[in-house]
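Appendix B: a complete holo record

For completeness, this appendix reproduces one full record from the ligand-bound portion of the collection. The bound molecule is calcium ion. The inputs are the chain sequence and the ligand SMILES; the output is the full three-dimensional arrangement of the complex, encoded as structure tokens. No fields have been trimmed.
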Amino acid sequence: MKNLIILTAAALLLMTPAIASANLLTNGDFEGSAGASWVNWGHANFTRDFDATDNKHGGAESYKVSWTTSVPEWNSAIALQEYIPISGGQTAYADLWVDVTSALNNAEAYLEVIFYNGVGTETGKQAGTKFGSFTGGWTQDSFSYVAPSGTTNAKYQLVVLPLPGGSASGTVYFDDAYFDTQAIPEPTSLFLLGSGLIGLLGFAKKKK
Ligand SMILES: [Ca+2]
Ligand SMILES: [Ca+2]
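The structure of the chain with calcium ion bound, as generated:
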């Protein structure tokens, strides 16, 4: 039994680097109450549902944006934002799941992270894939970006941007938004860690 405890402790210590990776977004899974922690702005023609249950990637809820009527002028984007402290030189890992279920006519949806210094001047930015047509189901989009020198915080935002020249319509879902200074843990490495732990437990049992 003593061996088992020691081996379990050792295995947990080995797992620590994976556990240390944490989502810095407060409500990235949208399971919280409507809009909690996110700042949202944009044209009233967009219908925003922070508690969509009809289509989600994880959990019970997602964030849904849809619009069908005469559209806002091209520059009236809708965006949902969270601000996160991050220092220059740190690598930002951004991840998001997107499902375009009704093609975004004349519009695009994407993840964008904008970096700022202490006085609010932009130091850099990085956008993910620009989604416009059907994704054919939930699609993962991720990127990493080294925060430029002087950066003190980042704005993680989900953007739906109507393009110039005509009316736009569509429906898009977002879920499992992620931002951290460490990469999102790979399911395979978690699996290997899990199997390693089970193996160690089996070994300890055998020894007894
Ligand atoms: Ca969710
Ligand atoms: Ca919600």
